[in-house]
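Technical note accompanying the year-one report. For the benefit of new consortium partners, we illustrate the data format agreed upon in the data management plan: each record pairs a sequence with a structure-token string. No post-processing was applied to the example shown here.
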Amino acid sequence: MPSEKLREHLRALSALARRLTRDRDAADDAVQDAMVVSLSQPQPRREPMRWLATVLKNCLRQDARRQQRRRRREAEVVDSDLVGISGFPVSLERRVGDGDRMIHTLK
């Protein structure tokens, strides 16, 4: 693909990514991911911009799923840390347990 045509596609891809993400940094990341993917695959002879747009959208979907899984995992960790066996927050249980051990040691 000629460099001028590639620059034209990159500009159009960046504009599409910014419209879809509404975030300049996320759009730049998505375009970079799309270009990495597109360079590792055979390019179509017809409608390369349409193909690049599809690659970009797939990259955005994958990133959204990745972020969703991460948020879910983080929420599970936070939820499991919030309440201990006694029904009180874990941090409070630890402090009470530490205090009990200190008192027992001092006796």
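Partners are asked to follow this layout when depositing records. The longest helix spans residues 48-82.
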